[in-house]
Amino acid sequence: MELFDCNLPPLKKICSGKVREVFDLASLGLDEQLLLVTTDRLSAFDCILPNTIPQKGFVLTQLSKFWFQKFSNLPHHLLETEVEYYPKALEPYKEQLRGRSMIVKKTKPLPLECIVRGYLAGSGWREYQEKGMLAGVPLPTGLLEAERLERPHFTPSTKAKDGHDESITWQECQELVGEKVAEKVRSLSLELYQAGAHIAAQRGMIIADTKFEFGFLGEEIILIDECMTPDSSRFWSAASYRIGENPPSFDKQFVRDYLQSCGWNKLPPAPVLPEEIILKTAEKYQEALERFSKN
Length: 295
Hints:
Layout: E1 12-16, E2 20-24, E3 33-38, E4 41-44, E5 47-52, H1 56-70, E6 78-80, H2 94-97, E7 101-105, E8 108-109, E9 112-119, H3 122-131, E10 133-134, E11 137-138, E12 148-154, E13 157-158, H4 170-177, H5 179-202, E14 205-217, E15 220-224, E16 233-237, H6 253-261, H7 275-293
Helix pairs in contact: 1-7, 4-5
């Protein structure tokens, strides 16, 4: 079953993001819980594409579940992913929700995307080529594309409700959320990235960069949204990694590369994807799940 959008009456939909639909469970007496449903939508360059990617919502949900369980020592929002344990009022939607949804704690999200880069790729590589910097921080000269950085860098961006997210400097990050909060999410992001990179290496994978999001649960800052999925990360196979080249990836970079080659101006409406691009992208997402979930 492919899913482009989702409505679950009588639940109130409080947000429809680029990929996820967010429902409030207050009408079921669960005032502090939300239901997140991950669709098969795909966004690129901050535009939602007209096609769905088969099983994408399932892959993102299962990979997030995998990482939330790995990071059980750190506070996060996940409560339940098995539809058999969902409220009885959701019984009619059980098959629609199976494998692609999660019940989570309700938080106050920070207006910040917490990006960690361990390798010089994507927009980080472009900034380095143009300015010799990464998120406003000077880097050594002579670095090559896809080169591993001496240490992972925290490169935050704004979280735009509409339009494009914008990269910001560390100082701007502190001004946006306050020094104490900025220090906390930077520390958590770097800790999560390094732990995830270690797990990935055991599976022959490289996490070149990834994005985390956090929210307030009372006074506590916890990990929310998704975690180290092909939508929020750049995955490479260690076997095919070469410094100075843009390695094949297990994420939507395949779609980005196609969109950059077809002459699209990166403004809505996004073009329809050819069938071969859809199927190849679905294969990439599925392989990422298989590689990480194997023991």
